[in-house]
Design a protein that fits this description.
Layout lengths: L3 E6 L3 E7 L4 E8 L8 H4 L1 H10 L7 E7 L2 E7 L5 E6 L3 E7 L7 E2 L4 E2 L2 H8 L3
């Protein structure tokens, strides 16, 4: 069995991890115009061309936020930037791949949307 877990992301959403001390960290992947560059565009030239025509010619449309206990780092990338995350297998108790819909969870008791970080904690059972 390997020592690392490698996660590749194609599209939008969250990759969340809980380490052995219970600390949550996550990456939020989003695209301008809510137009994620899904894997299907890689294998279909016609869809790929249409995507580029409709989405700023494919430049600087991917936004990546990395949030840890130490703070947040953000960067803008090209639409087709490879997104790969490596986690030491022994360092984490949970890895979760979450739809961007996790940020749209709502509280019936509070009658409002749950803030993004809290909804990710809820989805991870924290």
């Amino acid at each position: 069995m390997g020592e690392e877990i490698q996660v590749y992301a194609y599209g939008d959403g969250y990759i969340a991890a809980v380490d052995r001390s219970g600390e949550l960290s996550y990456a939020r992947i989003s695209f301008q115009e809510n137009m994620p560059y899904y894997l299907s565009y890689w294998v279909n030239e016609k869809r790929h061309s249409l995507y580029l025509q409709q989405n700023h010619q494919g430049t600087d449309v991917l936004h990546l936020d990395r949030v840890t206990g130490a703070g947040q780092q953000s960067e803008d990338l090209y639409y087709d930037a490879p997104l790969s995350f490596v986690f030491p297998q022994k360092g984490y108790t949970l890895l979760a791949l979450l739809s961007d819909g996790v940020a749209a969870l709502s509280s019936i008791a509070e009658n409002r949307l749950i803030p993004g970080p809290r909804s990710i904690k809820t989805a991870c059972g924290l």
